[in-house]
Amino acid sequence: MFTDISYILHFSAEIKKRMKRENQSSMSEFLLLGLPILPEQQGMFFALFLGVYLTTLLGNLLILLLIKLDPRLHTPMYFFLSHLAFTDVSFSSVTIPRMLISMHIQQQSIPYVECISQMYFFILFGCLDNFLLAVMAYDRYVAICQPLYYITVMRQELCISLVAVSWFFCCIHALLHTLLLVQLSFSAENTIPNFFCDLPALLKMSCSDISINELVIFTEGGMLFILPLSIILGSYVRIGTIVLRGPSTKRLFKAFSTCGSHLFVVSLYYGTLAGVYFFSSLWDSNDKYIIASVIYAVVTPMLNPFIYSLRNRDIKQALEIFLNRANFLK
User: Fold this and answer.
1) How far apart are CA 283 and CA 285, in angstroms?
2) Pick from 29, 126, 288, 320: CA 20 to 30 A from residue 230's CA?
3) Alpha helices, DSSP H only, in 206-248?
């Protein structure tokens, strides 16, 4: 009797374990809940995010075109700016088109492979944005604080090397988190409470031990978060110190105007980034987490063209020349 009962219990436990393994291994898709909006508001938000995406594309692609066509913009600053524009286009294209498709056809499912790929490229271009912002801040530091050595320091070889190193470390960073994630098993609950596949949400869905993943996020991820931010803040603190020593009020106003715009975007970008990846467990509402994700992934890439370029006199002159040529060809 007892042998039969123990056998039945053992057999039942084995069935449960097997069913659990089957549920985990047969994970073929995830469900994206999307934005916390009412069904009657879908059309309005679809038009809003479509406008934001088109603005991001047109603004950044215009910057790339102007830098390519105008020889006066073939300088280190605009070389970095062109890479930032390309990164912002790619960063937005990773999440927004998929979100718009889901809102239009009311299809929330996303295949497993596509979800993992989206997460990889999201981490890659997000990391690359961080590094390029730091490189641009260093470029401005050399231009303002060491103008006599600018051409010598910011030579073409160094500029290419800085961008190449940024790409290398960001690719390794994204690949590391992706490889660690695909080793995990997921429970039958496959709903992601966001509009894209982000790392924190996927980790919360895992039924495996994620201590290594969390350790890598707070160590390696934290280092790649703090290092660019330190370079940016250090560069602008040094710029502010040098400018304050100068007698020119006009130069002071111009420098702080530029620094203020840059630091505003940096604060917005890094603040929401920290909220999404480092302090997501502290959010008392999932809506706040999604709002932070929207600012980080959607709004900031749209602001960069206006902050860094469209207010720039050289870009405006290049745009005027381009429009005059276009009218002449008509």
Assistant:
1) 5
2) 288
3) 211-216, 222-245
C-alpha separations of 250 from 137, 256, 257 in Å: 21, 10, 11
- pTM of model > 0.85: no
Tell me 188's DSSP state.
S
For 101-112, what is each residue's pLDDT tens digit? 888 887 778 898
The pLDDT tens digits for 279-328 are 655 555 667 777 777 888 888 888 877 776 656 777 778 878 877 777 76
Q: Which residue has the higher pLDDT, 158 or 245?
A: 158
**DSSP secondary structure string for all residues of 267-317:** HHHHHHHHHHHTSGGG-S-HHHHHHHHHIIIIIHHHHHHIIIIIT-HHHHH
Which value, in Å, is the radius of gyration of the alpha carbons in the chain?
24
How far, in Å, CA of 272 to CA of 249, rounded? 34
Query: Cα 135 from chain centroid?
Result: 16
Cα-flanking dihedrals φ and ψ of residue 16, to 5°?
Answer: -60, -45
Helix ranges, the chain (H):
2-25, 42-69, 76-105, 112-145, 150-153, 156-182, 199-205, 211-216, 222-245, 249-277, 286-294, 300-305, 313-329
- Number of Cβ atoms within 10 Å of the Cβ of 173: 22
